[in-house]
Design a protein that fits this description.
- The chain is of the alpha+beta class and 87 residues long.
- It is built from two helices and four strands; from the N terminus they run H-E-E-E-H-E.
- It has one domain.
- Strand 1 and strand 2 form a beta hairpin.
- The two termini are 19 Å apart.
């Protein structure tokens, strides 16, 4: 992931948080509603991987966070292309 792209995505995410530090999102892959905490302890911080941003084909149409199930599905479909976090 390019540092400039990551910094831009993080700044956009932080700009849309509520006073409690949460973002209410709708997963772009499946449509389920879920919460994200980009400034704190988000559920994705506890995953064993991070997806590359921007995503490669055929997943380039996802412009924001995915729900837990879809994040895991896309990471598995990429065959380990996600970045291990050491968790």
């Amino acid at each position: 992931m390019a540092p400039d792209h990551f910094a831009k995505a993080r700044a956009e995410a932080l700009a849309s948080v509520d006073p409690a530090g949460r973002r209410e999102l709708v997963c772009e892959r499946c449509g389920v509603r879920f919460a994200c905490r980009p400034a704190g302890s988000c559920w994705c911080n506890h995953e064993a991987f991070r997806l590359p941003v921007p995503l490669p084909e055929p997943f380039t149409n996802f412009g924001d966070c995915l729900c837990p199930a879809c994040l895991r599905h896309v990471a598995a479909a990429l065959g380990g292309a996600g970045t291990p976090t050491g968790n």
